[in-house]
């Protein structure tokens, strides 16, 4: 009965999200209606990730983590584009940078740290595959430096911006690096991204995968949910920006809100995997989402900025670069041994807390 209710819920919410778009599109809405739409938006995000998990269970690891990461990135791109189109020119240009940087901090410190912390609490030591995790972290560091750090130091354009040629190179390079990582993760060195064998069995490890029919239904509902998320995000985006302005927060907090909204379901999935003695799956989700967030979001936003003639600020400030460098350095020290204790998890969560604090109090 519980499973049946869950299926009904994950089917109804995406359909509801699409159904309410027509009456709400392009209209000034009362506050209670905007709150209701935001709640439906959250439900649609959770339903989308649920259906991605169904497909992930069908294809197995590490393909499952890849499906989840790509689904979340599609949602992120849709949210960014929706807010860019609805915002003024002076506020839209740094939105992609703020959102992508927030996604990197959330994944590489928040989700990464929670996975290690939960895994260590369950077994005293969280064990994972250092080869695959190290390769993923190196990919994140390369993409983040190429797209978020270099624009601060280039001289072709005034300010922390790429020229059109530089932006095109960064977009293509990001796609190439992302494609190579996917090939390594799913084909060439697939075993480096599989959960480390443990002596703890869990029912999920032996559960029957969904049927082909159920998988195709979930894929269809996933597309519907993504459509609803993007549409509702554009509808409630003025309320999000007004709420942040009313709270006295900097406009860069909009990107943090987007990233937190999109990555919340993925966080729950990673923590659930760590609790089930599959820390590697949680780390795959964390770092895979960071790689997809840069490798897919930046090219998509680059194309949109050129077509829509929107200036795109990508370069990070000094404080953000320090946090990024510290995150990569600490992450490398965490990954090398292939095992972590509560200490490593706590350190990453403190870095995540520092990012959130500095985002609202720069």
From TrEMBL:
The keyword Transmembrane applies. It is a multi-pass membrane protein. InterPro entries: Alkaline_pH_Ca-Antiporter, NaCa_Exmemb. The chain crosses the membrane at residues 36-54, 66-87, 99-121, 133-153, 165-184, 216-233, 253-271, 283-307, 313-335, 342-360. It comes from the Bacteria. It is found in: Membrane. Residues 36-186, 218-359 form the Sodium/calcium exchanger membrane region domain. Keywords: Membrane, Transmembrane, Transmembrane helix. Its main location: membrane. This is Ionic transporter y4hA. It comes from Nocardia acididurans. The lineage of its organism: Bacteria, Bacillati, Actinomycetota, Actinomycetes, Mycobacteriales.
């Amino acid at each position: 009965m519980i499973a049946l209710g869950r299926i009904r819920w994950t089917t109804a919410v995406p359909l509801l999200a699409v159904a309410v778009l027509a009456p709400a599109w392009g209209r000034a809405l009362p506050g209670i209606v905007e709150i209701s739409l935001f709640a439906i938006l959250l439900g649609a995000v959770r339903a989308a990730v649920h259906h991605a998990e169904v497909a992930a269970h069908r294809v197995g690891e590490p393909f499952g983590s890849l499906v989840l990461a790509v689904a979340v990135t599609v949602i992120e791109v849709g949210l960014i584009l929706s807010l860019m189109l609805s915002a003024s020119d002076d506020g839209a240009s740094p939105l992609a940078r703020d959102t992508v940087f927030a996604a990197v901090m959330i994944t590489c410190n928040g989700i990464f740290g929670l996975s290690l912390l939960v895994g260590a609490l369950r077994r005293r030591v969280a064990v994972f595959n250092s080869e695959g995790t190290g390769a993923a972290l190196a990919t994140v560091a390369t993409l983040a430096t190429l797209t978020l750090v270099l624009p601060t130091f280039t001289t072709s354009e005034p300010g922390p911006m790429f020229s059109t040629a530089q932006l095109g190179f960064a977009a293509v390079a990001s796609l190439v690096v992302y494609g190579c990582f996917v090939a390594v993760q799913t084909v060439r060195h697939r075993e480096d991204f599989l959960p480390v064998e443990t002596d703890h069995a869990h029912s999920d490890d032996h559960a029957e995968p969904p049927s082909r029919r159920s998988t195709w239904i979930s894929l269809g509902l996933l597309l519907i949910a993504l459509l609803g998320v993007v549409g509702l995000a554009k509808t409630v985006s003025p309320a999000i920006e007004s709420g942040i302005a009313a709270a006295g927060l900097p406009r860069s907090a909009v990107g943090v809100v987007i990233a937190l909204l999109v990555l919340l379901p993925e966080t729950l999935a990673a923590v659930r995997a760590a609790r089930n003695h599959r820390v590697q799956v949680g780390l795959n989700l964390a770092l895979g989402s960071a790689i997809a967030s840069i490798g897919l979001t930046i090219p998509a936003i680059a194309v949109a900025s050129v077509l829509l003639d929107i200036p795109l600020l990508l370069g990070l400030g000094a404080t953000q670069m320090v946090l990024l460098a510290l995150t990569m350095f600490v992450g490398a020290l965490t990954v090398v041994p292939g095992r972590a204790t509560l200490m490593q998890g706590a350190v990453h969560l403190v870095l995540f807390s520092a990012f959130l604090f500095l985002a609202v109090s720069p």
